[in-house]
Structures are given as C-alpha cells and as structure tokens.
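Feature request disguised as a bug: please show the residue count (498) next to Transporter YclF in the output. Example input:
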Amino acid sequence: MSAIIDRKKILETVPQTGFFGHPKGLSTLFFTEFWERFSYYGMKGILIYYMYDRLKNGGLGLDPTTAASIASIYGALVYMSGIIGGWVSDRLLGSVKTVFYGGVLIMLGHIALAIPAGFPALIVSMVLIVLGTGLLKPNAASTVGELYDEKDLRRDSGFSIYYMAVNLGAFLAPLIVGTVGQKYNYHLGFSIAAVGMFLGLVAFSTTRKKYLGLAGSVVHNPLTPDEKKSTFMKIGLGTIGLIIILAATIPTGILNLDRFITLVSILGFLIPAWYFVMMYFSKKSTRDERSRLLAYIPLFIASIVFWAIEEQGASLLAVYADKRTQLDFGGFHILPSWFQTLNPLFIVVFAPVLASLWMKLGDRQPSTPVKFSFGLIFAGLSFIVMMAPAYFNGSHTLVNPLWLVLSYFLVVIGELCLSPVGLSVSTKLAPAAFSAQMLSLWNLSDAAAQTLNAQLVKMYDANHEVMYFGVVGLISAVLGVFLLLYTPVIKRLMRGVK
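Example output, currently without the count:
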C-alpha cells in the first residue's frame, strides 16, 4: 500500500481493546518481539564465550579483550543497520512486510552459527543477523506507535508492555540457550536460537492481518518510478564497489580487525550526525518538526551515555562474571551466561510497576527529559557500586556475585526510566516523512554507545577497576544532573509533546 492514509482511518482498522486494555495488535507485536529477542539474546548470551573459549572446547580461541570488542562492534552494527530497515519501510515496503523479511534473515543467521564452520560461519551469521535485525527491530516498534492516537494516554504504557516482551524473551534465552551452549555444545545452543526466530515468524504471520489492520502497511514516503530506478542502480554499484574494496584490502592486510573496529567506531557517530542534518534540512520537515528534532538531540546524547554502560553488561561484565566472580555460591555452581538473565528478570518484575505508575499519574507523570535524567543517574550508580569489590578485596580475589546482581539491578531501574519512554518519544517527535527512520535514529544511539564501548573495553584492566568503574559511572551521573537542569529548555523545543 503506497498511498498515504489518514491516521484516523488506520486506527479504525485496529481493534482498540483485547490485550490488557490495549489494542489487540499489541499482542501480535508482543509475541513476535518476544521470540526475536529470545533468539538474539540466546545467541548473544554465549557468543562472547564461544569466541574466547579454547578450540578444544569448541570455541574460536580469541583473546577475551578482542572478543569483547567484536561483541560491541557486532551489537553496534545490528543497531546501525536499522537505517536500512527504516528506509526500506518508509520508501519501499511498509513496516509489516519489512518486519517479516527481517525475521527470515535473522533465522538464517542463527542457522549459519549452528554449523560448526569456525570463523567464516561467524562472519556469515553476523552479516545476516545484522541486516535482519535492522529490518525487523525499528519497524516492529514503529508499528506499535501506529496502534495509538498521538494523544492516547495508554501510549507510554503500551510501549512498556511491548518492552516487557523484549525482556521476557531475553530472560529465558540465557537459561535455555546459555545452559545448552556452555554445558553441552555451542552450536546446539545457536540452533535453539534459530528455532526461536522461526516461532516468532509463525506468531507474526498468523495474526498480523486480523489484529494489526492497516497499521504498519503504509509506505509513508514512497519512491517514484524514476527514484526506484536511480536508487537501485546506486545500490548495485555501491555493492560492487564494496566487494572490490574488501577484496583488495583484506588479503593485503590493509583492512584488519583492529582497523575495522576503529572504522565502525567512527561511523557510529558520523551516521547519526548525518541523519539529524538530513531530517532537519529536509523540505518535508515543518518548522515545528525541526524544533522537536533539536529537542531530541540532548535526549539522544543521554541515550548514548546510558547504553554505553548498559551494553557493557553483555561484554565487559560478561567477561567479569567468568573471570572475576565467585561462581560456586551457596553450594551451587553458576554458569557465567546466567548473569545475562538479571537485566531482563528485573525488567519483567518492575516494568509493570512503572507502566502502572505512569498510567496512574497521567498528566502528572515526570516529563520525558526528567525520566531520561533519572536513567543516567541510575546507570552511573550501577558502575560506581562496582568500585567497592575491587577496593575492598583487591584485583586478584574472586568477588561475591551479589555485587554484579546489584549493578544489574541499578542499571535496570535506569533503563525502565529511559528506554521505553525513548521509544515512545521517538515516535512522537518524528517528522511525518521519517516516522520509521526516527526509530532507526533512536537505535543508532545504542549503536554509537557500542562503538564507544569497543574502545572503552580496551582500557579496562583488573588492576585498575576502581578507576575504570568510577570514572565512567561518575560521568553518567553528572550528565544526568545536567540534563535535569536543562529540562525546561527541552520542553519548550518539544512544542507541546510530553
């Protein structure tokens, strides 16, 4: 469907109740995202251990620091690829079709990892999952936004429920995929992740027409026939050029792993900067929309700082759990991958609490910038508390796992203040012509954070833990206070959006 359809007509096709007081289409997106996140976090939960585990144990035998950098860059590329997904949705297919094709690519990526073919299979898998997640993730969230009227007070609560699906999948994945992967066979674990994505595709395909109506079916800014011809020619020439460059630089050593990580780290900041400039100066953006984009910039920066800490839970703290933590605790042996369940577990428990709180407060709830500032402060505290075990026990003594539990808990409180609200405000502040691409821009904050982490994790050393955790944590907390003070300015720029 290529014609622009009035938003009210779209809402008329969506059953507005039927899923905990929310539109019934939320259930379709809930279960699709649940299984997609199960597959992704199941894979991610054992990926870093697979990369640095010894060859005789079925791993790739990489250095742990290198593995952490690769994991960060991988995560960054996953979120950077959201640019592609946003563009495909807005200009070619619409959100619903883009979500489906993305899920197919993700499933194929997990199947590639399930094959014991070493580093080449890892690269193939990464390419497929990066592209697939870029197609699926921003467009699933964008479709959630289309289920509600812009002034519907259920909107933030709906995104919180949707966000709970993400974390239910992420909670179960390390327990199932992590246990199978670390106790039995990594590739068997990756195959379970593939099955998870298949189930997500089934859930989406069987309910989307009945529950979503026209939501996600509109191509908001379709290519004209002439634009299609020109665009596809540019894509083809660009692909050929990229293949030639890679063929010339990889065998000669000009492009090695360290240089690739550095290149992606630079792109992680240049791409969102270009995105802001492109949308701001577009003739399709109105004066009010430009003002809202300016309001979005400090929120975007805050998001980068937050995710820089949160995402280290799956890279640096994952290594910390394996190398620095007492895993025999209370007569029970803990697998390092199980720590990845803490973040989603706390979110599943506390997300309904905050969702209900926002609903109860209604117009009296804290503004979006205030919620973002709380997110930064709690993220900072989650690293500041990690100074204590190294300070009191030294860098050569295994630490009590409860320190990690506390750290994950604090960052989750911050995440619940920032992340679901960030999704919601991205849809509300988006210029009409760039609705899906604005969700891609939101995901780019996570990409920028992870490219930053690819460099930060190189600075971590067990002998300097107090300095590392203290500096990073304090920067986040101080920026949170600054954002709180800057809130009145941001609210004026938002032009009535709360």
